[in-house]
Amino acid sequence: MKEIEALYLDMIKAARRYIYVENQYFTSDVIGEALKASLALAQGPEITVVTRLLSHGWLEEVTMSTLRTKLVRDLRAADKHGRLRCVYPDVPGLCDGECLDVHSKVMIVDDEWCRIGSSNLSNRSMGMDTECDLTIEAQGDAKIAAAIRQFRDDLIAEHSAVPRRLLELPAPELTEAKLAMASVGDPGSPLALERIVEQVAPEVKMKKGFKVRKALYILGGVIAAAVVLALLWTRTPLADWVTRENAAQIADWFAQRWWAPVLVVLAYTPASFIMFPRWIITMTAVLAFGPWHGLVYAFAGVIIAGICTFLPGRMVSRDTIRRLAGKKLKPLTHFMERKGLIAVTILRLMPIAPFPIVNLVMGAMRVKLWHFVVGTIIGMMPGMLAATILSEQLAAALEDPTRVNFWLIGAAVLVIVTVVFFGQRYMRRHGAAH
Q1: Which of 301, 322, 374, 317 is nearest to 343 (CA)?
Q2: Which of 28, 239, 356, 388 has the most CB atoms in a 10 Å sphere around its CB?
Q3: Which bin fits 426, alpha (ψ -120 to 50), beta or left (φ > 0)?
Q4: Cα–Cα distance between 36 and 77 in angstroms, integer?
């Protein structure tokens, strides 16, 4: 339902003399287009927008402030008749990084309508969040119109009284990269889970010849990178620094620190949130502590990181996840509900989305905690063992290149391929493979 948005549009369209706005955010594309249409009129209303100068925190600064700047720039470009003012309240003497906060959500039009509520002028409020607004309409009553006008004048007086003032809102130029990054911060509708999957793991249909060429390009790139690194490590001054002895000394120094195991275990949680490759942490643990201790520390870190993103999912209802998942992922959500431990194990073998997203969904689908923990251990065991074996072989290569066991490496890769193959067959049999 779009009642919140519809009322804003009706008020803007009906305005003849003035539109006065106070709002925490000012990013809505729909509202922006309506205001542009009003500014294009030869005889239209004066428009005043009062908002805060700064945002709360770096994330809002990157997203909401950027989108607001774009909207303000677009409106000023459309203001051919000089009827727009976008301002912020200020008190002289504030330190850098400080501003008067504006948290109100008010729109007053022509002494006829006065609207106060919870809705921000953002895409999110227009189509995603649940809001509640109250609007008073004069309907020709002079007393009500006078009260609405007095309320507007009091607000302006508050911002303009000594020592306060209203200043023009800055709107610097923006780069396309900054706008692209900011657009995800103010969605106009709920983001379907299948769209998240498509973004992080898109299913691309390509011709067979293109697949072969792409594989050859990747293989060639890997070989070229390996040759370049080999030349750097053997034919340049790096050869005196990147040595087996130095690598062993660093690993020994790290392993002797009492806090080293704690650091390795705890590192998996932030690494999961920022999509940092967890195998690098696993490799570090194996090189420093040996294969068995490294494997134990790695598993402890993965389980803690998993639980930290699994438990917040419990705050989301199952119906919400089913609604957001879409048609393509409904079989998968049903698969998790029916199979529990097996589903967790299979999804760990073949992750379809980033680690924290999968954990959140499992929490929302009310997967049992012990199913989650045990399934994660079983499902990630082949990959962790493979990483451990490869790391151990790397350590062996650093000490003595002749000790590398290529049969063992091949066996580790074969185990991974086999497990994934039969996991896919199992999911297809149960209608959950997407």
Answers
A1: 374
A2: 28
A3: alpha
A4: 9
Q: In this structure, which amino acid lies at residue 143? A: K
Asked if the structure places residue 221 within a domain, the reply is: yes
3's torsion region: left (phi>0), alpha (psi -120 to 50) or beta?
A: alpha
Q: Is residue 434 part of a domain?
A: no
Taking residue 132's Cβ as centre, other Cβ atoms within 10 Å add up to 8
Q: Nearest CA to 19 among 131, 115, 104, 90?
A: 115
pTM: 0.49
Burial of residue 389 (CB within 10 Å: 0-12, 13-18, 19+) is buried
219 and 283, same structural domain? no
Distances from the Cα of 102 to the Cαs of 51, 56, 90, in angstroms? 6, 11, 11
Residue 68 lies in a domain: yes
Q: CA–CA separation, 385 vs 373, rounded Å?
A: 17
Number of compact structural domains in the chain: 3
Query: Tens of pLDDT along 271-294?
Result: 776 666 666 777 777 777 877 787
165 plus 86 within the same structural domain: yes
What domain range is 233 assigned to? 192-240
Query: How many CA within 13 A on the CB side of residue 153?
Result: 7
Q: Per the structure block, which two tokens stand in for 404?
A: 């590398």
Which tens digits make up the pLDDT trace of 350-392?
A: 656 667 777 877 887 778 888 888 888 887 777 777 767 766 6
C-alpha separations of 25 from 4, 29, 68, 128, 215 in Å: 15, 12, 7, 15, 47
Q: What is the enclosing helix (H) or strand (E) of 133?
A: strand 133-137
Q: In what order do the strands lie in the sheet with 113-117?
A: 133-137, 113-117, 105-109, 18-23, 46-50, 84-90, 165-168
At residue 283, φ and ψ (nearest 5 deg) are -65, -40
Q: Please give the DSSP secondary-structure letter assigned to residue 7.
A: H
